[in-house]
Structure formats: structure tokens, C-alpha cells
Design goal:
Helix content is 40%, strand content 3%. By secondary structure, it is mostly helical. It has a two-stranded antiparallel ribbon with strand order 1-2. A hairpin with a 2-residue loop joins β1 and β2.
Length: 359
């Protein structure tokens, strides 16, 4: 429960905040019923910590210690109920908080459109972000858009486009202190259990799974230990580009470190004149190659290992002016000029090579 609340405090998903609010209520009530079955008056038993075994006829000293620690931690977590309600209202500024089903199970129609039934949320799924503040402009996805083809009009760039700002969510200090106190009480009580009892720290498990998903496996450094002893060698894990990118139209707490910040990609070269090149790696066959973003004009397309005589004879011929331009064009030797020309070709804007020629 503590681990879930810790995650919800910094997560922009409204459904997760609402879920832990309900789970906390159920958790506290369940603990109260359990404690009441063991002893009729928890407050009386645990208010005098001098000799718990003497105050309880049916509990041993270790059992009484566990009993009172469970009672104290539950009362500590109960303090979070109003705080979670307040934070849920703030999450409603980021995503749609739909109405929950009625407890009695009866049906209720939409107050405006009485014909349309109410759409209840699924708290295990992400809440829908508010479109006005967080949605990106529509653009073809990789799955739906084929590879670029020479001669087809490219998507026009959006002038003065500013990406939607992601929310910055900091967990309240009071809530963190309350969780730390409850966790400390429970951790100190674990020594009262028999040694064969093992406890699972879900927060530590989450960190281990995060390293397992994005970092090196422990045996890899051992496997290549002899190679790593050589000068100017290293080892790191190559992840897919999607691991470093936020999916469109989803919320992310910008105060939480991203995958790239938690597991930074190492520099493959020495910085010169305070310039550290950042080039993307891509897989080409069975090898890696550096991709130069911002300088690819898309003049050439890889058609595969096909003999020239096997190419389709119906391929569209290039107009003579364009052919002459491509044969005589000399790319600039300056990076800024290269990127400027690239934008001209891809957008069709500000070309005017000669006599208002547009490529």
C-alpha cells in the first residue's frame, strides 16, 4: 500500500490517485477489523508501551509488538485520506475524471444526453488527458505512413510550434513524511517475526525491475571482463528509440527522470572545442551505423540488394530540370546551411534555386 501511494503521489494519472484513495480506505478498515478480533481495545493496549504482554492476556510480547506497530502504521496512513482527496482534484486539471459506478449497481444515464449511457472509467487504465493542454497535433504514425518516396509532397512544418508542456508534480513533503513514518514502524517490527518469514519491499523490487529493463545484466560485465580490461573500451545497453521517447498524447511528470536521464547514453568520442556530437545509432543489417539527423535530404532510397537490370522498367522518369539539378547540386560544407537546405527540400518553402525552381 505504501509503495502504491508513493508512486501515485508523483504520477499524473488521475485514475491511479483515485485507486489508491479507495484502496487506503479498504486497507485501514481491514486492519481495524483484524485488530479488533485480536484485542477489543487497540488504543488502550498500545497507549502504554511499558509492558504490552502484561496489558494483554491473549498476546505474547512479540505478538503485542506486532499488533501495536500495525495499529500505529494504519493510523498514520489514515492521515493521508484528505491529502489524497485534495491531490485527486488537482489531477482533474490534467485528465478527465469520469464518474464511478453507483454502489447499488443501478443504472444511470448521462445528465445531458439521457439516451447515452454513462461511460465509467477503468481504474487500471490511464485516464484520458485533457486535449486542450496536452495533445500534440495529428501526424501519421510510423505504422500507417509508408517510407518516404521521392516526388511526394511532404508534410508542411508547423510554424512557431511549441510542444505542450508536461506537468511538474512534486509529492507533498507532509505526505512523504507520513509514509516514511509508517514504513519505519513496519520495518522495525519485522525483527519480531520468526526468521523463516521473508518480506518483500515493492519499492526496491521496482528499482530492480527498472535496472533489469534498461541497464546491463550483471553477468554481461563478467562475460566480457577480459575485453573490458583493454584501454578505451566500455559496455552499455542499446535500447530501442521508443524507450527514450514519450508516446504522443500521454502525460509525463517532467520532474521524474526519464530513461535517458536514469541510464544516459555514453559519448562515443572525445569532445572537441566544447562540442560533443550526439548522433543516433541505428541497426543496419547486423551492424550499427551512425545516423546524421538534420542533414538527410531523402534524395536517395535504399531499394535493397537488387541488380539494376532487375529494376522495374515502369519507374517514373525524372524531369530533365530536376535531373540536371540533382547532378549539379553541391551540398554546403556548413552544418547550419545543410540543415537549411534540407528544410527547403522537405517543406518546399524558400527554395528559388533559379527562376523560382522548386524541387
Amino acid at each position: 500500500m505504501i509503495a502504491r501511494i508513493e508512486q501515485a503521489l508523483t504520477n499524473p494519472d488521475a485514475n491511479r490517485m483515485r485507486a489508491v484513495g479507495g484502496q487506503l480506505t479498504v486497507q485501514v478498515k481491514t486492519v481495524e477489523n483484524f485488530l479488533h478480533r485480536q484485542h477489543k481495545n487497540s488504543h488502550t493496549l498500545c497507549s502504554n508501551q511499558v509492558d504490552l504482554a502484561r496489558n494483554s492476556d491473549q498476546l505474547t510480547e512479540s505478538q503485542a509488538q506486532i499488533y501495536c506497530s500495525l495499529y500505529a502504521s494504519s493510523q498514520e496512513l489514515l492521515k493521508l485520506t484528505p491529502e489524497l482527496d485534495r491531490l485527486l482534484s488537482r489531477r482533474g486539471e490534467l485528465a478527465l475524471v469520469k464518474q464511478l459506478p453507483l454502489v447499488t449497481g443501478e443504472h444511470q444515464s448521462d445528465p445531458v444526453l439521457s439516451i447515452a449511457p454513462m461511460q465509467y472509467p477503468h481504474l487500471r487504465k490511464l485516464a484520458t488527458p485533457l486535449p486542450l493542454s496536452t495533445w500534440e497535433p495529428k501526424s501519421p504514425t510510423v505504422a500507417s505512413a509508408p517510407l518516404p518516396v521521392i516526388g511526394r509532397t511532404a508534410k508542411t512544418a508547423i510554424a512557431n510550434y511549441v510542444p505542450p508542456a508536461q506537468p511538474a508534480i512534486a509529492a507533498p513533503e507532509s505526505s512523504l513524511n507520513t509514509l516514511a513514518t509508517a514504513k519505519q514502524i513496519l520495518t522495525a517490527t519485522q525483527i519480531s517475526f520468526p526468521p523463516e518469514i521473508r518480506f518483500t519491499d515493492l519499492g526496491e523490487n521496482a528499482n530492480v525491475l527498472d535496472r533489469f529493463a534498461y541497464d546491463l545484466y550483471p553477468q554481461e560485465s563478467q562475460t566480457y571482463a577480459k575485453f573490458l580490461e583493454l584501454p578505451r573500451t566500455g559496455i552499455f545497453r542499446i535500447l530501442q528509440s521508443s524507450a527514450y521517447q514519450r508516446p504522443l498524447n500521454t502525460l509525463r511528470n517532467r520532474l521524474q527522470p526519464s530513461v535517458n536521464e536514469r541510464y544516459p547514453f555514453p559519448s562515443l568520442g572525445d569532445a572537441q572545442n566544447r562540442f560533443n556530437p550526439s548522433l543516433a545509432l541505428q541497426v543496419q543489417g547486423e551492424r550499427f551505423q551512425l545516423r546524421h539527423p538534420g542533414v538527410d535530404y531523402s534524395f536517395m532510397v535504399d531499394v535493397g540488394d537488387v541488380p539494376l537490370e532487375k529494376l522495374d522498367g515502369k519507374l517514373q522518369a525524372i524531369d530533365s530540370p530536376i535531373k540536371e539539378f540533382l547532378l549539379n547540386y553541391r551540398p554546403p560544407q556548413n552544418l547550419d546551411a545543410l540543415q537549411l537546405d534540407r528544410r527547403r527540400f522537405l517543406t518546399g518553402k524558400d527554395q528559388n534555386w533559379q527562376q523560382n525552381q522548386t524541387i
